[in-house]
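Escalation from tier 1.

The customer reports that the assembly of two entities below gives different structure tokens on two consecutive runs. Tier 1 could not reproduce it. I'm attaching the input and our single run for tier 2 to review.
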Amino acid sequence: MIMKGPDREWLKRRLMGGAFFMLIAFAVLTARLFYLQIIEGEEYLRLSENNCIRLKSVEASRGLIYDRNGVLLVDNRPSFDLKIVFKDARPIHKTLETLAGFTQIPLEELQAKVDGSKGGAKYKPLLLKKGISRDQLALVESHSFDLPGVLVDVEPRRNYVYKKSAAHLIGYLGQINGGELSSGKYPGVRGGDSIGKYGAEKVFEKLLRGKRGGRQVEVDASGRLVRVLKTVDSVPGKNLFLTIDNTLQQTAEAMLQGKAGAIVALDPSNGDVLVMASNPSFDQNDFIGGISSKKWKKLLAHPDRPMSNKAIQGEYPPASTYKMITAIAALEEGVVDASTTRFCSGQYKFGNRAYRCWKKWGHGELDLLGAIENSCDVYFYRAGEELGVDSLAQYAKGCGLGKGTGIELEHERPGLVPTSAWKKKRYGVPWQPGETLSIAIGQGFNLVTPLQMAVFTAALGNGGTLYRPRILKSVQTLNGGMSDVKAPEIIGGLPAGKETLKIVRKGLLDVVQGNRGTARSIRIKGVEIAGKTGTAQVFSLKKKDRESNKRLDYKLRDHAWFVCYAPAENPVIAVAVIIEHGEHGSTAAAPVAGAVLRAYLEEKGMIEREVQVKE
Amino acid sequence: MFDRRLIECFDWGLLVITLLIASVGLGVLYSAVTAGEITATHVLFKKQFVWMGAGFFIMFVSVLVHYKYLDKGSLAIYAGCIGLLVMVLVCGKYVGGSRRWLALGAFTMQPSELMKLSLIIMISSVYSGAASEEGLGFRDLIRPGLVLALPFMLIVKQPDLGTALLLLFITACITLFVKVEKRVFITCASICAAAVPLVWFVLKDYQKARILTFLNPDRDPLGAGYHIIQSKIAIGSGMLFGKGYLKGTQNALSFLPEQHTDFILSVLAEEWGLLGCAVLLFLYFLLLIWGLNISYSCRDMFGSILAFGITIMIFWQIFINVGMIMGLMPVVGVPLPLISYGGSSVITNMAGIGILMNISMRRFASS
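Tier 1 run:
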């Protein structure tokens, strides 16, 4: 029966039940209070008098970084940090004076640290000085009874073994900032902690970072450890093996000394990045614990942009290295075949303008192979004219240009493959047929990164497969074993048939091995090399300026390109080199690539190790 | 509508108890925020003072309109709160890994707090039409079950397991209060008993670990376990008479976690000892008995259930919070009513007490 109003007796019974329940609950609470405050009270009072239960965090060591052969590139070295707990360091001024006396650290410096931290919790250690020397450490430890509240924490600090080497690839650490802290992307990271800020250190942060542990400890009145109550172990970060080859990287960087430019070397069979060098570089150790603003400003003001990774961020006109794409497009579209010949008189008249070949007096009659070997511009002007810009662009995109390669690193630039629609949108004016001629020989609006050219060259070498370049080879598992990160990833295939590839590859072989090849100078005994030079105009110059004998201003000089792979039949390495303002591909870039090839082939045992002889 | 008789019947006793607890709360809060050297401390105290003022205002507003309109408007209030909870999930503020707050201009609110009250109103409304001498049957439990499930899931999603369980406890207590048939009670109890191990097997390892830590803070000695041990030191070291107002050392060195919100009673215990705690617990107990008495004196079913529901809500908050800081309960974010810092909590509890007064002063009026 539904009740209209509650029956008095019924309600009373129910409520009495509720009241009884609450009474019991309150009795339990009171009993607990009695137990804590009266029975155990003395013990808790003792514990509270020194506030002696503390938390000490145990830092997790960050994963180490090795090269592909297990050479240590980045490790952690112990850093001794001087700290003070205000509550225990009484009288504070006297303690600081004693400390300054022992360590020779100026008292003002210590005092300034202390003054700067007013309002912080008194029982939490305050950092006085990072990275004190072992001598200072010994003095502080041996006089610990005169230095109440002073303690030395050992913390691992990042150490980059090869100064300035592969700095753009490996990256560096820095203190986490407020935005990163609140982003929620870094669980378990506290203010003041260091995280990867750039390069592999940043993109593999999750693998490298361990998990902080800690100890609940009881200390005595002067802050010394009495006993450890509970411990949570820290979990170290994972060790990484990168794909780069340190020996080769060193060789490459030595070759770049004093120049601005980049070198990328890939394993054509899987996309492993063997070398990624960008010069000028920076010292990663400067960034640990915050780079000084003077050093930072100097880096930013440097005209050759040391902070930019030119291998993936430098966008350059591909120049003659682009002729492979024009050749593929021309062959595939049937504009030319292997036997088509053209006559090069040193220039090509188009409209009311003469487009010059780099060779003033012309190459004469040439077929496609000859045109690649000699890098004849006129041949490719005509091929480009017949193909049109949009057809060329389709092939360029098919070869992996105009978009990022998808390497793990951040800030990769896409380069640019111009089309008629792009120009209309960008500049609001229609495409001029003459511009296609510039595009066909890799000048004009074309832009590529050294990495893109390396991936493309590697694909030419391996028979047409574009691999996603990668820098992480394997991760060490907890039990010491290795886990390969992932299988090589194919991102596409060259838009070229077997026959086409064969011809283009023969052309590239002739560039080095042919009698008139533009890169004859880098031949290595016992191995055939295939490659292509390029000389990218930085600035459009009048004919007379270019031909005058006066040396051009550095900033106006052409960029020098060289791309290659070796051995030509079954390559184990593909290299792309750019030397900014190096002027000629054949003289500035090709020898650099040659040295890298030689070093790698020697390391692989494919050629005899050569005793250094001056040629 | 507002005749003299109502004013004569105004529940002065309840107001006095509330005022006493609120002043204890402000006193302890002052100690917690000043002695602990938290920067910008006095701001918190001032803010709480304003919240208390707003709370009393809300309390008197709650008194004005006859509570039967709460019955009529229960669905709208419920729907409004559900809307706020959905908004929390969509655009709430992240604090410490969970989304519990809504930013409304300069201040933030915690809709799950308001949800407690609106759930009680909704449940009371549902049960007032279903209660019978024999008790509730299975069919009668479907609707309240759904009414509970919706906010429960939304709050679990935040995630705020503590508040979600609080809703469950409140609903369960109201249901038992209204009385269920014996067979219903036995079935539900055995289903629950059977479900617990089943659920345990379904959970992933990290979820199990989280629940174990929730039940036993000692498993997390650097987080919850550390908080509990510091809280226990603070409480225990207060002994019988305490260390004296503003003289708590655990408090002063900011050893206590959340000393102005969830762990505020540790400050009181340290500075006022067992005696101070006993006085506060006595005041609380008085408040609860007062609430039950109002439920008894009410002449209609809705009012009775509502008064009981609000009383049991206050009870559970006290029991869970006090149990937690002494290491008897899992570490959950349940504030101590009228004492802990926090606007949403103050408003919710004040509004609840206002509704109790409302029911109390209309006990002689015929419906």
